Amino acid sequence: MDASQYVGIAILAGYWLVLITTRWMFIARPNRRFTLARIDDAQYYLEPGTEPSLLDEARAVATGTTVPGDPNWLRHRRGQEPHEDQGSPVRWIRRALDVITAPLIWNGSRDLVAWNLLHRVEAHEAARLTGPELVAAVMKAQSQLEDLPETKRLYWSRVLFELLQTDPKLQDEATAQAILRNLMNELYNARDTKFTNLATQQNKVTWMVFTGLVIMGALISMGYEVLLLAGAVGGVLSRLQRELVRRDVPSDYGLSWSVLFLSPVSGALSAWAGVLLLQTLQRFNVIDLAQLLPDNTDLTNPSGPILGVAILFGLSERLLDRIVRQAEDEIATKPAADKKVEPTVEPPRQTSPAPAPEVVGP
Predict the structure, then answer these.
(1) pLDDT number for residue 128
(2) Is the dihedral of CA 141, 146, 149, 151 positive or negative?
(3) pLDDT score of 341
(4) pLDDT of res. 217
(5) pTM of the model
(6) Which residues, 6 or more positions from 214, have their beta carbon under 8 angstroms from its beta carbon?
(7) pLDDT higher than threshold 60 for residue 129
(8) 209 in Cβ contact with 265 (< 8 Å)
(9) Cα–Cα distance, 214 to 237 (Å, whole number)
């Protein structure tokens, strides 16, 4: 390996380090601080004397002082003594390791659990409202039904319509409170499921970035660093153009950040695969690019036009798919076109004799 290959591998390692740092600074920490702020906000409006509550458990999970489902926390809520290993050195060592490795293995699970507990408390507190506040809470929940799936949205629309039509002031508070509690649980479950899917997708994209960097490291060791660099430049340009015209979107739990890191990796691999595919199709006479890709082309030392094609592959993510589909169509239709078409000899037509001219007498 020469110096350029070592530099390429060092760049990949630095890229992964920047990705991990960015996830921790701009995704994990903001989500955690926002979660703690919402817990404090909910705690402020709760009636005194509710300690220890689910909000305390949510705060402990979000800050990492306890793990979700910790039996010691449940014993604490019940007023029982904690287990003997509560203050054992093993537990403190495990907690210290969690703090050290948190930026490396963060996946958002603690925040999701904290939000689930927070939503349970909010639904419970909303169901304790009475009078005009209860009516306002029901009407507010009615305006948020678009978060539900279609079947549940239709069901709850009908339930709330009948409830407000038959009892506009909600005189039967017990029934209205029970309905509101179940509806709030449905709404919060739908939102929690949505953000769980976003967090899962964000983690998948991060894994794909790591896998792509490993593959790029192997290709760099084979001498394709210049071709990969051109594709990465195309991927960065593509993402820059999209960010300039991007519209305002709601919170996506860090998915846009992960896609941002995936673009250069995807562009680099698409460039290498695209140029290699063009070279293969050229040798099989599927396409004619002899001037661009002669038979003796060395992709480990690409020329200027080849680098331009690599940047184009990195810039356009769909270009590789189009070329693959075009090659499949060409390969599928070529055997049929190569078949010799035997001329068909039509039998001679039988022509009937022309009728004799009719003689009209005087």
Answers:
(1) 87
(2) positive
(3) 46
(4) 94
(5) 0.76
(6) none
(7) yes
(8) yes
(9) 22
255: left (phi over 0), alpha (psi -120 to 50) or beta: alpha
> Do the beta carbons of residue 24 and residue 106 sit within 8 Å?
yes
Alpha helices in 24-149 (DSSP H): 29-45, 54-63, 71-77, 89-105, 109-126, 131-142
What is the Cα Rg of the chain in Å? 34
Among 208, 206, 188, residue whose Cα is nearest residue 196: 188
| Measured distance CA(157)–CA(142) in Å, rounded | 7
**What mean pLDDT, rounded, does the chain reach?**
79
Q: In angstroms, what CA-CA distances link 348 with 342, 353, 354?
A: 18, 15, 17
DSSP string, 278-295: HHHHHHTTSS--TTTS-T
Q: Is the pLDDT of residue 3 over 80?
A: yes
What size, in residues, is the chain?
362
User: Cβ–Cβ contacts within 10 Å for residue 27, how many?
Assistant: 21
Mean pLDDT of 129-139: 91
Closest CA to 217 of 361, 3, 2, 10: 10
Among residues 148, 107, 125, 82, which one has the least CA distance to residue 24?
107
- Both structure tokens of 5: 């290959």
**Could you tell me which of 141, 126, 118, 117 has the C-alpha nearest to residue 181?**
126
Mean pLDDT in residue range 45-72: 66
- What is the per-residue pLDDT across 250-269, written as a single tens digit (0 to 9) for each? 567 777 888 888 889 999 99
